[in-house]
Structure to design on (376 residues):
């Protein structure tokens, strides 16, 4: 039987895909007998995330520790970093797994500091997109990628959630001089169950963070265009929260869609899927988004942008894929809504998805990476 580990996951913002990934991973790791803890920011997340933390806290032997963490590098970073280091040192991890740019920096630096004081700590980093979204030709991008190159010497293993992410790292940062693995995000078995659509379902669903990177503005513009082309207003539900939410409210009002678009706070994806006939993922950039996997596993027809790792889920050339452009999205909406039954048959099927994107597969591969890092 494998040794039981003390595993600490460090990340900044407990929202969206990173938080979902960590929740699934900790659940599988606890079930495997490991002692697991979380260290993350205390200034982000709302009531929905608080409820998720409440549901987790009893199972995490090393606890949930929240402390302020800034998104960007700044003067407050030093105090925040020192507080975070103190928390992690007390937890005495065997494995320190950082997620996203800030979590990855903390995990690798603090893991290295712990090694100086003779603690054996495996330092792993999952970018989840993070700083890899920056343009390598800009000053900011050059700074972040130089930092990534520097941080590689403090890293025992890189874990990529998509082949796209690994290729992007190679292109922007360089060939990793350390072990690295591709481990796809995974869903729990219960999520491979079809979701019944509500009787009063809207035509379309957007679910995700309310920020331009995720494309809510593209979704709203396409909604107006497709409605005029189809000769009827399309109805939509937009689920999520974020700093840019007021701007999307204003956009809906400006386009005369107020009576056709309903904004709803964050909720479990399965509940949201029942609210509409077709889900749209209009992101401008992604790594390997859970929402795409969740929707397909639940039997939802979908239109998604061909960015990041999304084509790895659908297969290149899938009719579900478009570029992040309102005109192209409107055209695809018209096609899909004209015969939704036929469109649904074009989606990847459950058995194939389960074999590639099961949470059990993901957790087993990541555990192998932990033990390999500990033997370095």
């Amino acid at each position: 039987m494998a040794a039981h580990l003390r595993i600490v996951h460090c990340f900044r913002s407990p929202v969206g895909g990173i938080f979902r990934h960590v929740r699934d991973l900790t659940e599988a790791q606890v079930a495997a007998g490991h002692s697991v803890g979380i260290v993350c920011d205390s200034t982000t997340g709302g009531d929905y995330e608080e409820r998720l933390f409440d549901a987790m806290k009893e199972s995490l032997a090393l606890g949930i520790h929240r402390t302020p963490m800034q998104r960007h590098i700044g003067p407050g970073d030093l105090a925040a970093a020192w507080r975070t280091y103190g928390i992690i040192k007390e937890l005495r991890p065997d494995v320190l797994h950082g997620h996203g740019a800030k979590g990855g920096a903390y995990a690798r630096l603090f893991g290295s500091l712990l090694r100086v004081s003779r603690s054996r700590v495996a330092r792993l980093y999952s970018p989840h997109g993070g700083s890899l979204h920056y343009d390598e030709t800009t000053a900011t991008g050059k700074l972040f990628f130089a930092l990534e190159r520097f941080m590689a010497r403090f890293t025992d293993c890189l874990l990529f959630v998509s082949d796209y992410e690994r290729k992007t790292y190679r292109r922007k940062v360089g060939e990793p001089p350390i072990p690295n693995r591709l481990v796809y995000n995974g869903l729990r078995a219960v999520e491979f169950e079809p979701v019944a659509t509500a009787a009063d379902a809207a035509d379309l669903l957007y679910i995700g963070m309310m920020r331009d990177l995720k494309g809510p503005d593209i979704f709203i513009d396409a909604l107006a265009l497709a409605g005029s082309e189809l000769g009827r207003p399309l109805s939509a539900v937009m689920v999520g929260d974020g700093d840019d939410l007021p701007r999307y409210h204003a956009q809906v009002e400006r386009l005369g869609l107020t009576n056709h678009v309903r904004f709803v706070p964050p909720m479990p994806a399965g509940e949201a899927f029942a609210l509409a006939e077709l889900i749209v993922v209009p992101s401008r950039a992604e790594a390997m988004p859970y929402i795409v996997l969740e929707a397909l596993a639940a039997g939802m027809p979908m239109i998604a942008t061909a960015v990041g790792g999304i084509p790895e889920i659908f297969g290149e050339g899938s009719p579900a894929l478009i570029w992040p452009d309102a005109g192209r999205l409107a055209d695809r909406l018209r096609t899909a809504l004209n015969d939704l039954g036929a469109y649904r048959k074009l989606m990847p099927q459950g058995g194939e998805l389960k074999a590639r994107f099961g949470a059990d597969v993901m957790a087993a591969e990541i555990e192998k990476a932990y033990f390999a890092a500990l033997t370095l």
